[in-house]
Design brief:
The protein has about 150 residues and is mainly alpha-helical. It has 3 helices and 2 strands, in the order ββααα. The chain has a two-stranded antiparallel ribbon.
């Protein structure tokens, strides 16, 4: 688990995981979280964050595959009378249903792609956060030990 100092000396810059407001007052009993983290410090399980990032990356791929599959299908085809009998007069009710199904499918596919992109972006940010905190923790540990990295 990585543990690094919070940014700055202001109370506003001190965050403790597990508090409702996300802000704590330094030097008070409220400045300790349930996990015992001191005010001005954050604790992060970088491996757990990396696992969550991996989950969102996989979710993004699955949701995108569903969007691709959905976009490739001709939803409402059953309602298109011209495909059933090309010589028949188009049925306005069935044609309307076919159009509505095709529009719903396109909208759903578009929204799934948006969700896929959002999940991928979240995964990237989580991964970068875990890497940054871990690197900072390693640098701090090396500094405390008198080593240079």
């Amino acid at each position: 688990m990585s543990r690094v100092d919070g940014a700055g000396d202001s109370d506003a810059g001190r965050v403790a995981a597990g508090t409702d407001a996300g802000r704590i007052a330094a030097g008070t009993d409220a400045g300790r979280t349930a996990a015992g983290t001191d005010a001005g410090r954050i604790a992060m399980d970088a491996e757990q964050v990396a696992a969550v990032a991996s989950f969102y990356r996989r979710s993004s791929l699955v949701v995108n595959a569903v969007a691709d599959d959905l976009a490739a299908r001709d939803f409402g085809r059953w309602a298109r009378s011209d495909l059933v009998d090309p010589s028949a007069e188009p049925d306005p009710v069935l044609s309307g249903l076919a159009s509505a199904y095709a529009e719903m499918s396109a909208t759903l596919s578009r929204r799934l792609r948006e969700q896929s992109r959002a999940a991928a972006a979240l995964a990237d940010r989580l991964r970068l956060s875990a890497e940054t905190v871990s690197a900072g923790d390693a640098d701090a540990a090396a500094g405390v030990a008198g080593e240079t990295r």
